[in-house]
Amino acid sequence: xxxxxxxxxxxxxxxxxxxxxxxxxxxxxxxxxxxxxxxxxxxxxxxxxxxxxxxxxxxxxxxxxxxxxxxxxxxxxxxxxxxxxxxxxxxxxxxxxxxxxxxxxxxxxxxxxxxxxxxxxxxxxxxxxxxxxxxxxxxxxxxxxxxxxxxxxxxxxxxxxxxxxxxxxxxxxxxxxxxxxxxxxxxxxxxxxxxxxxxxxxxxxxxxxxxxxxxxxxxxxxxxxxxxxxxxxxxxxxxxxxxxxxxxxxxxxxxxxxxxxxxxxxxxxxxxxxxxxxxxxxxxxxxxxxxxxxxxxxxxxxxxxxxxxxxxxxxxxxxxxxxxxxxxxxxxxxxxxxxxxxxxxxxxxxxx
Length: 352
Known about the structure:
Blueprint: H1 23-42, H2 47-70, H3 72-106, H4 112-116, H5 132-163, H6 166-180, H7 184-198, H8 205-229, H9 233-241, H10 246-274, H11 278-283, H12 302-312, H13 315-346
Helix pairs in contact: 1-2, 2-3, 3-13, 5-8, 5-10, 5-12, 6-8, 7-8, 8-10, 9-10, 10-13, 12-13
């Protein structure tokens, strides 16, 4: 027998060809360049049309490049990923455009004077004035609405997840679903007919807060309910096995585990009602003066202030409307960042 070594001419491998990591960026850059060229050649003035052409070319380019190098199966996966990115960018463009336009127009009068003064005796057609009275009204109305809606919503969600059985739970679920689809004007008309017309309590920030709480409640219930359902049953069973009562298990185990998601859901509900105009227009009535008492007399709010100033239709009021819109966006952003910080702080610690 010969002892000569056997030489392998070709090494076997299970891996096929693969596109380099920079290929999506290269395909995207080429698609944008070709899309812009097609737009210029076709005389298309809208940059949106250029973007749509570039998006189509990006997906097609990704498919053909991946098919040639990696095969049809991997190409389908890359096309799906490309479609997700395209949809994300398409959804992001209006948001970025809105924020950019608001910032560009709002900074004209957005300063400390604007934030620390009310309209008072300033006519809508004259420059000056500010949103101090509207900020106070928004903070008080949203705060009162949250004090009403959050405890009721969280307790309702706890009942549905932890205790809800039978006809009562089905009825509560049905009414929560109905409330989710209620238009804001209907909530305002309900409070208007009962609180102001029947009980004759008058226009006030509290009346607007009650309508806002109606809109906020189903969002809190649904978000809290979903977060409570994500808590593993093993945690509940382990607590109950130690002889701990169910109510204490909910307070000490279930709620701390899901507190991050609950706070996020509450902030989503707050963000929804912060920009509502119709209930405030019906119930709060609006004023250019400072009213620190939400239970007595008309009161301003940022959405109503924006609506009234933009409706005035003159350059000074339009500038104030854009600046107030910028303040409203910043207000919601600060609330969301604060909620994320609280959720991270209160979330259960993981790891060692």
